[in-house]
Structures
1.
Amino acid sequence: MTPSASRIPTQDRYRGALVGLALGDALGAPREGGPLERLLWRWLGFTPGGLHRFTDDTQMSVDLALSLIRHGGVDQDDLAARFADSYRWDRGYGPGAAKVLKQIRAGRAWQDACLSVYPAGSFGNGGAMRSPVIGLFFHSRPDELLRAAPLASQVTHAHPLAVEGATLVAGATAAALDGPDGSQLLEQASRFCASPAFSTRLDKARHWLQTGQPISPQVLRSELDMGITATTSCVTSLYLAARFLDRSIDALIGFASDAGGDVDTVCAMAGALWGARNGFAALPGHLVARLEGAARLADIGDQLHAKAHAAAAAALR
Ligand code: R7I
Ligand code: MG
Ligand code: MG
């Protein structure tokens, strides 16, 4: 595909993707997991000023975005340092990721730390949940996107399934920026995964969407999953985004909350896709007004847009 500056979508879509990700994360977090986690997040889920706090999903997306903006591509050493520096227990990081980040902060090389908890690296969804940022940055550079998504995942999530989930979510986000309908979004996304754990779920999701089946939250959870791993959350997010593209993001988050499980992460990835397609202006203002760091996130979206635009223009010269 030839890069083209004119193909870069509007700034509003970039803002929408980042703020949509954070909104899904922050509003999904109190609905995540079992009764104990929900209770804990009632306490941790608000800033002192009463805003909805985001979790590790958004924090790692911000870290990745700032690193890409600073370096013009994936610099794994810088990324590892930023992830480790931002780590706070009360952002709700995954258990393995927390251990890896604490080791990096203590001075261990990320290449060793990321294989210290699980020998082949984690297959948790932590690589995919920040990957919408890769889709934004490399929107008009698909070959670079395919190289960058694995590099950005591997720093903490080196397992091939985590890497594939990250690539799938990055590719889907790039596709969402072009304004597809739900079926087109899933069709475009299908080019970014090959393993049956993803492709079988994606085939099912595409069938549900095409036939308009009234899938309940319970069926969604039992058939596609709402889990903490890449294979049990990425396609679920894609399906939800595709199904709710022409409805409100509140309806999407409400549906995911009824399904339960890893609600913050599924809503973060689906929220990013929804926002990339529909733009910041389509997000409900009253919810954005109560989101931690919304103005900063919008600004980072603007910076990503400017960088993506400049890179595409440079490629044309
Ligand atoms: O993937 P990760 O960063 O977790 C992200 C999740 C999101 O829901 C966030 O919102 C936050 O709540 O946490 O954290 P990891 O600990 O690397 O992976 C998540 C989980 O996947 C682990 O705690 C394990 O349960 C499982 N897992 C594995 N289990 C067995 N063998 C990941 N990799 C393996 C493995 O190799
Ligand atoms: Mg989280
Ligand atoms: Mg989560």
Note: The mean pLDDT is 96.
2.
Amino acid sequence: MKFSWRVLVLWTLPALVIGFFFWQGAFASAPADMSKNAANTRMTYGRFLEYLNADRVTSVDLYEGGRTAIVEARDQDIENRIQRWRVDLPVNAPELITKLKEKAISFDAHPMRNDGAIWGLLGNLVFPVLLITGLFFLFRRSSNLPGGPGQAMNFGKSKARFQMEAKTGVKFDDVAGIEEAKEELQEVVTFLKQPERFTAVGARIPKGVLLVGPPGTGKTLLAKAIAGEAGVPFFSISGSEFVEMFVGVGASRVRDLFKKAKDNAPCIIFIDEIDAVGRQRGAGIGGGNDEREQTLNQLLTEMDGFEGNTGIIIIAATNRPDVLDSALLRPGRFDRQVTVDPPDIKGRLEILQVHARNKKLDNSVSLDAIARRTPGFTGADLANLLNEAAILTARRRKEAITLREIDDAVDRVVAGMEGTPLVDSKSKRLIAYHEIGHALVGTLLKDHDPVQKVTLIPRGQAQGLTWFTPNEEQGLISRSQLKARITGALGGRAAEEVIFGPAEVTTGAGGDLQQLSGMARQMVTRFGMSNLGPLSLESQQGEVFLGRDWTTRSEYSESIASRIDGQVRAIVEECYENAKKIIRDHRSVTDRLVDLLIEKETIDGEEFRQIVAEYAEVPEKQQYVPQL
Ligand code: ADP
Ligand code: MG
Ligand code: ZN
């Protein structure tokens, strides 16, 4: 049933109520059958008595138990013609009957119509009955809707909200770019398909596999692919769905889930976001969360409860393995951990190939170049990127996706929606100087990534943007690269100050400063790149709210703390002086580039470098610059 009963009942109720009142008016209070004798004109009781005394009344019909009478009398005014009148009689007028008898006037009493009374009675009953039925329906329907108030009535019964997919239809071919993870899981498929191969030699089939990796790297997809390859049912539930409003629901859901799974073995149970339940017990401010801990205990018990070879394999996914309870990770539970990392350049190319299968790409588009331009993108980002490009293509009424759509889609995925360009004004000039400052400093530093493009078209929060392309997949970053990045990030503020003076600098550099301060601090405290020596002074810590216990943060004395601050400041100051010097020394090319940027809104990297090369020596640094 597609339509909603609730809406139906809600609308019929008022309609019935209104209808009921009309109906009462029409039937229940209708005078008994007077319509046949209907008299249009009325006569007062006194007048009636006068007529009676004057012997002009010929007949009287009494209605409603003697409260109304239709009187026939000769009308003096119109030549004694017989006329009919309606007369309301006083309640107590027994002498009237006597008088009528005296005068020998024919009179008749008409009984009250009995069915009228019945209808009246029924009418009075119908309304409450309708109301109660209506309310009953309302309540019953709403109790079937998830989250309705009726849920409170049957929380004990715990409807486990996991889904079972008989066949996921996802194959390993649909998962690309995460080869190591795939290889490890290939074995799980064999466990499910041919368990004898392992049990024959006495091997115990693993019960749990924990997929660890950032969001969007394809963990859910991978789990589905295992089920798809093995052709087994796939039960999926999200960790947060275990934990509910009522204590004990989580634990009973876990029981339910495993019971269903046992009935359907061999199968895969997939628990997404397991950190929602599997967090270290007893942690956090003020101790733990009883409900969550009970759920987790139940999960641990269930995992111990079935024999290793029942053919149920539990796959869980998380991006925070550090907060998981250690009992979950011990052998016999999630004893295999598979890391799913964001793809490298080769992986990105493969993922793009998977998702380009069902898209129409122009011949000019090279997936290779897209893969180069998208470091740090996960599988989900890449899928989204191609989809955005396809949407843009459709919007522009093109036949196939071209480079332009891909380019725009990358910008959009990375930096947000495109805004409308500023009109030419002082603040537009200032933003132009800021962006050219970033780009120029970045271009003239040997260790900086090459500029990909500079633009004044606002996107997301940013009024203007300078895009850099990382040269290669950078696993390790050197000290001079870090310093170059800090200097480049300061290029915007440096240009504002050099050109407009210290009084005119703007808040536009806020984001830059935040980023570079973080980098400078990490150079000192984590990477040992200052004169404090090769010491790790701060470890990356989970926040207390996310499930780790409160521990004292600083691992150093007050005096070291102030030396750290001093070192951070020294690094930033040195870089800032350097950035300002670069702008001052290249003032004329800066002005020319700003004029060009304001005129064209966007300058691409190649053109930018050519112009800079007319004025200064551009360091030889890039092996390739992705052409898009
Ligand atoms: P996770 O569970 O790790 O957050 P998902 O598995 O839900 O990520 O991925 C979301 C979508 O992104 C998938 O449906 C798929 O379209 C795409 N995707 C992610 N990773 C990959 C990959 N390695 N290969 C192909 N597609 C991927
Ligand atoms: Mg997922
Ligand atoms: Zn900036």
Note: The CA atoms of residues 18 and 32 lie 24 Å apart.
